[in-house]
Amino acid sequence: AVVSTQSGHYGRGRVDAARRELFLAKDKYHHHTLEENREEVAVKKEALKSCYLTVEEEILQEKIRKVEESADRCRNKESWELINDISGRTRTCCGLTEGSSPAERLNNWKKHFAGLLGQPPSIPDADITIRNIHPPLDIDINPFTPEELAQAKKQIVEGKAFGDDGISPEVMKRVDLDEIILKFCNDALTKGEIPDQWKLSNIIPVPKKGDLTKTDNYRGISLTSIVCKTLNRMVLKKKKVPTATLR
Questions:
Q1: How far is Cα 223 from Cα 201, in angstroms, rounded to an integer?
Q2: Pseudo-torsion of CA 161, 167, 172, 173, nearest 10°?
Q3: Which residues contact 64 (CB under 8 A, 6 or more apart)?
Q4: What's the CA angle centered on 100, arms 88 and 85, to 5 degrees?
Q5: pLDDT band of 233, cuts 50, 70, 90
Q6: Which of 106, 119, 117 is nearest to 219 (CA)?
């Protein structure tokens, strides 16, 4: 919940601190998979959960205090607004879509977005010969160079969401991974070897209008790999000049 009270402000600071400690513990465990590090991660998880509960209780107590204060001053409208906020009476939906179980709701999401994305085209004759409309183009098919990668990285915007591979725009721009990224991109270009995570899109449901318990009232935003997007930019760059003269 977004709360502007003083306790809410300090509470968020405590939650952020507990979350940072958990991230540090996880990072330590990933680098050194020792049992004591795994136990530390479990302890930090419980500490974060406890911190959430404590802060939520403090925020609730602060709201209740404000209700009592408003009632004492005969501010009935303000009192009822706070009561409705606490009880959730003004909420228009529960945040869950239709379905009797998490598995059924997940399947409903899958059907909804599969329908929006459409189906692969049916090809009646896979051996049919496709006639060339334009003459062969002089497209550079050589491996990508560090200069091409550097140029493509300039178009990356920080602060954006990333795909299933977990590589954020900040990592792409600030961490020296160019040699590794260039190898993956060139393997995709010359050998057709594409990592499975580059083929995945994480679809985030975004509510529209109407009954939000129905998946039909949601559109989706697809989050794909930043590295794969960079590969696409480099491919388009190679094609841009030769295809510019086509009509």
A1: 5
A2: 50
A3: 86
A4: 5
A5: very high
A6: 117
Cβ atoms of 82 and 63 within 8 Å: the answer is yes
Contacts (Cβ under 8 Å, ≥6 apart) of 243 = 137, 139
Q: Please check the confidence at residue 4 and state whether its pLDDT lies above 50.
A: no
Does the model's pTM come out above 0.70? no
| Pairing of the two strands 202-207 and 218-223 | antiparallel
Q: How far apart are CA 18 and CA 35, in angstroms?
A: 21
Query: In the chain, helix, strand, coil percent, each to 5?
Result: 60, 5, 35
Say how many C-beta atoms besides its own lie within 10 A of residue 163's C-beta.
Answer: 21
Burial of 56 (C-beta count, 10 Å sphere; 0-12/13-18/19+): middle
Alpha carbon distance 203, 191 (integer Å): 29
Angle between helix 226-243 and 146-153 (nearest 10): 110
Which contacts of 12-17 are long-range, i.e. CB under 8 A and separated by 24 or more positions?
Answer: 12/55, 14/51, 14/54, 14/55, 15/48, 15/51, 15/52, 15/55
- The amino acid at 240: K
CA angle 153, 155, 160 (to 5 degrees): 95
pLDDT tens figures, 73-109: 777 777 777 777 777 665 544 457 888 888 998 899 9
Higher-pLDDT residue of 120 and 112 is 112
What is the residue type of 60?
L
Token pair, residue 217, equals 């009232």
Residues β-bridged to residue 218? 207
